[in-house]
Amino acid sequence: MLFIEFSYVLFFFMHKYYYLCRRLTHKYTPRTIYMKVKKSRLETLRMIISSRELGSQEELLAALHREGFKLTQATLSRDLKQLKVAKAATMSGNYVYVLPNITMYKRVSSPAQVKEMMQVPGFLSIAFSGNMAVIRTKPGYASSIAYNIDNSEIPYILGTIAGDDTIFMVIKDDSDEHEVVSALSKVVPNMI
C-alpha cells in the first residue's frame, strides 16, 4: 500500500516537474505570442501610414484587415497613440494620418537646433499694402508659420492672424518692406 501511494506521489511530482520544465523552456507562451502579434501589427500600421494617404480610422481598419489583422477601433486608437500618429493637411487640403518626425522628439541642448526644428516649410508668397501684409502658404501651414513669426519678436511686426493657408500681418508704420522681408527670412524658410 505504501509503495502504491509512493508511486502516485512520484508520478505526480515527475509530471509537475516535466510540465514546469517544458513551460519554462517553451519560447512561445501566450504573452510572447501576443507581443509578437502586436509588434507585427504596429510595424504593419507604420508601413500602411507611410505608404498610403488614409484619413479615417475606418480606412485604417480596412487596410489592416486586408493585411490579416482583425482588431477593434479601440485597439487601433491605442496603437495610434502609442506610435504618436497625427493628422496633417495634404496639398489638396485633406487631412491624413502621418507618422511623427523622430527628430522632433529628441532633446536638444543648443537653441540653434531648436530654431531649426521649429522652422516649417510651406511659404508661397508675400504681398504688402500700406502697413499690412498677406502671406500665402500651403494648406495647413499658416498657423505654424504665424506662431513662429509671433514668437520670434520681430520689431517691425505688431501681430499676425492665421487661417488655413493665409496669414494677415500688421506692420509698424515706419517699417520698410525690405527690412520686414529680411527679418522674416530668418524665421520663415524659403522666404527669399
Explain what the structure shows.
The chain has 192 residues and is an alpha+beta fold. Helices cover 48% and strands 17% of the residues. It is built from seven helices and six strands. A four-stranded antiparallel sheet has the order 3-4-6-5, with helices on one face. Strands 1-2 form a two-stranded antiparallel ribbon. The longest helix is centred in the first third of the chain and has 24 residues, at 2-25.
Structure summary:
With 192 residues, the chain is α+β, with helices and mostly antiparallel strands. It is 48% helix and 17% strand. The chain has helices at 2-25, 30-51, 57-66, 73-82, 111-118, 142-151, 177-185; strands spanning 86-89, 95-98, 123-129, 132-137, 157-162, 166-171.
Helix content: 40-55%
Cα end-to-end separation: 99 Å
Low-pLDDT segments, ≥5 res: 102-120
* Order of H and E elements: HHHHEEHEEHEEH
* Beta-strand share of residues: 15-25%
Largest sheet: 4 strands, antiparallel
Strand order of the largest sheet: 3-4-6-5
Number of strand segments: 6
Name the shape in a single word.
elongated
Rg (CA only)? 29 Å
Mean pLDDT: 75
If helices are DSSP runs of H or I spanning 4 or more residues, what is the number of helices? 7
Structural class: alpha+beta
